[in-house]
Amino acid sequence: MLAERDEFLTEGLRPLDCRSCGTTVLVKKNSPQHTSIQWTTDASTSCPVLAERAAAGVHPALLDTCERLSDSITEAVREGRLPCHG
Q1: Which residues neighbour 11 within 8 Å (Cβ) at sequence distance 6 or greater?
Q2: Whole-prediction pTM value?
Q3: Mean pLDDT across the stretch 64-73?
Q4: Is residue 17 a part of any domain in this protein?
Q5: In 37, 52, 56, 81, which residue has its Cα 20 to 30 A from 5's Cα atom?
Q6: In a domain, 83, yes or no
Q7: What total number of domains does the chain contain?
Q8: Is residue 27 within 8 Å of 36, Cβ to Cβ?
Q9: For residue 64, what are the domain limits?
Q10: Contacts 24+ apart (CB under 8 A), 59-66
Q11: CB–CB of 25/39 below 8 Å?
């Protein structure tokens, strides 16, 4: 059961570098509307946008996805570097 859960959570994740800051995350496009992102580092310190928000007092658990990273993911899908499974 544990192996099946881990496979469900991690299958299809691909490394992707943010074109703005170079931070690497693992990404899977489950559908045009749904994206899974797994940070491989502390997002609130490795991403300059999220670090700025954290420094302004936003709790790290409440940080939303960086718009620059979202743009990088959209570009990767458009260029065919990241498949969309939906």
Answers
A1: 28
A2: 0.84
A3: 92
A4: yes
A5: 81
A6: no
A7: 1
A8: yes
A9: 12-78
A10: 65/37, 66/18
A11: yes
